[in-house]
Design a protein that fits this description.
47% of the residues lie in helices and 16% in strands. It is globular. The chain has a six-stranded mixed beta sheet with strand order 1-2-3-5-7-10, with helices on both faces. A four-stranded mixed beta sheet has the order 4-6-8-9. The protein is built from eleven helices and ten strands. By secondary structure, it is α/β, with parallel strands linked by helices. α1 packs parallel to α3, α5 crosses α6 and α9 packs antiparallel against α10. It folds into two domains: 198 residues, 2-enoyl-CoA Hydratase, Chain A, domain 1 (Alpha-Beta Complex), CATH 3.90.226; 47 residues, Orthogonal Bundle (Lyase 2-enoyl-coa Hydratase, Chain  A, domain 2), CATH 1.10.12.
Amino acid sequence: MPFENILFEIAGGVAAITLNRPDKLNSFTTAMHVELREALQRVRGDAAVRALLITGAGRGFCAGQDLSERVMSGGGGELDVGATLEQNYNPLVRGLRALPIPVLCAVNGVAAGAGCNFALACDIVIAARSARFIEVFSRIGLIPDAGGTYLLPRLIGTARAVGMALTAEAVSAEQAEAWGLIWKCVDDGELMPQARNLAATLAAGATRGFALTKQALYASSGNSIEQQLALEARLQREAAQTADFREGVQAFLEKRTARFSGK
């Protein structure tokens, strides 16, 4: 299918998705969700893709749901926002978290509402110094969705999560980095060069090991220490059977750079 609301490309083992409604601050529509699901399906189906980079076009990353869209206006009847979440946002967040490759998000401007939580659902978030993160839901009487109530307390603790959710105050990229909400804040002009460089580095890495690392880290919050130790043993056994592990050890012994294949 042709894409009209996103840009999508694959090069050098890196898939890149750019939200592309800059005149609307890349706010989500049903059509954009359809295209994002298709793009993620292509990423999952292409063995050559070993990292995913997501960003936004123009001066913002994503302003959340486009409230002018007919489905959000209710069309004269009752509005079922829960159905919108079940049909669009929940599959998007699940799809991101389930990808067995590193998912890097480069936040180039405001990330608000579902746009904020979409970014936070990625594995690594780099933000331009001018970027802001805003949980705007309380301004219109809603709760944080798109995984926000799950992600925020785990990233920054309950006190800060509640503060962001209830006040809808903007959090600067520098503050987000200091809190641990994101991985790194960089100067605006350095955002995409650093993001692309990191995506390429991850794509050249031991991506089977990355997938197992993600699985272990994301499972930890729901496990006891005994359960987590058992999971580590199981996943480490699997990691040690990969070609990348053998290559990594051989490269270490030979004092050379490892050439990982993602297998």
